[in-house]
Amino acid sequence: MKKIILALGLAFSLPQLAQAGFAEGATAYNAKNYTVALKEVTPLAKAGNADAQHLLGLMYYMGRGVTQDYKQALDWHRKAALQGKADAQYVVGAMYYTGNAVIQDHKQAVAWFRKAAEQGHAEALQALGLMYRYHTAGLPQDNVIAYMLWNLAAAYGSVNAAEQRSAVVKNMTAEQLEEGQALSAAWKPNTPLPQRSRTGGS
């Protein structure tokens, strides 16, 4: 069975976020001026700003502008994740999956990945697809759900998911492919993702 490797290859450079007070910190971070970024985002994070909490969590995770500290990274990401920040939910899921700064817990990982995926988070959709494809983290082996998740992730810009989707198609029947496409077309962001398919389970 292939080993699932979840890299935190997410928004380590942040998109432009039009938010008063946060833009300066994000701009400084993207310019690698981590001292200014830390100064700008710390008070916002402490005041409960989810974007700032996520950015501060990334800084602790990467050791940028601060001493690398995975526990602090997890704490800040969890605060943002509990507010519904999809990027932070993905990071919390990945840290539970790998046991980084927390006791490894695949059920927690799946729960956080699902929260992010249900907002259309490409990396979370891809990660869940891998878990369904290779029957890991307590999820059933289901090529149709994997296909659906990768189809959605590809639509949100994941090149890896597009490649994985192409590979799994070789192991799917026409009926399974039809169901996967129908599930993809029917799903809308911020609604529950299906957990089992009709035709794809082993």
UniProtKB/TrEMBL annotation:
Gene3D superfamilies: Tetratricopeptide repeat domain (1.25.40.10). Keywords: Signal. It comes from the Bacteria. It comes from Duganella fentianensis. This is Sel1 repeat family protein. Pfam families: Sel1 (PF08238). InterPro entries: Sel1-like (IPR006597), Sel1_AlgK (IPR050767), TPR-like_helical_dom_sf (IPR011990). Residues 1-18 form the signal peptide.
